[in-house]
Amino acid sequence: MKVLFILNDAPYGSEKAFNALRLAMALQKDHPETKVRLFLMADAVGAALAGQATPQGYYNLGRMVESVARKGGEVALCGSCMEARGLKGAAPGTMPQLAQWTVEAEKVLVF
């Protein structure tokens, strides 16, 4: 099974990104044969920032994105979304890449 997660919302403005990443991690744990891909766009690109300082006991989306990647998940950040927010570092993802991932996916979940 190939599952594509598309995240749009700000990392900490709601719990959508948190819940998407929880589900992605659960799929990797409970169904290791499942290929997980994350495409972060709009304000969701901020979820992948390293070094996020979150309060004690609060979830850290940067660490969650890293966990998905460490377990073989593919992660891409929209390049124009990164540029609009002054973010650098990761290789930028593209709309043609998102289009390709979409046609290859058996399930697409949008958060």
Could you write a compact summary of the structure shown?
This protein is α/β, with parallel strands linked by helices and 111 residues long. Helices cover 37% and strands 21% of the residues. It has a single domain (2-110), classed as Hypothetical Protein Ychn, Chain: A (3-Layer(aba) Sandwich), CATH 3.40.1260.
Overall number of strands: 5
Low-confidence stretches: none
Overall structural domain count: 1
Rg on CA atoms, Å: 13 Å
Structural class computed from helices and strand pairing: alpha/beta
Would you identify the CATH H-level superfamily? DsrEFH-like
What fold name stands as the CATH topology? Hypothetical Protein Ychn, Chain: A
Termini gap: 19 Å
Strand share of the residues? 15-25%
Helix content: 25-40%
How many helix segments?
A: 4
Order of strands, main sheet, comes to 4-3-2-1-5
Helix and strand sequence: EHEHEHEHE
Plain-language structure description:
This protein has about 110 residues and is of the alpha/beta class. It has a single domain, classed as 3-Layer(aba) Sandwich (Hypothetical Protein Ychn, Chain: A), CATH 3.40.1260.10. The protein is about 35% helix and about 20% strand. The chain contains 4 helices and 5 strands, in the order βαβαβαβαβ. It has helices spanning about 15-30, 60-70, 80-85, 95-105, and strands spanning about 1-5, 35-40, 75-80, 90-95, 105-110. The protein has a 5-stranded parallel beta sheet, with helices on both faces. α3 links the parallel β3 and β4 (about 90-95). The longest helix is centred in the N-terminal third of the chain and has 15 residues, at about 15-30.
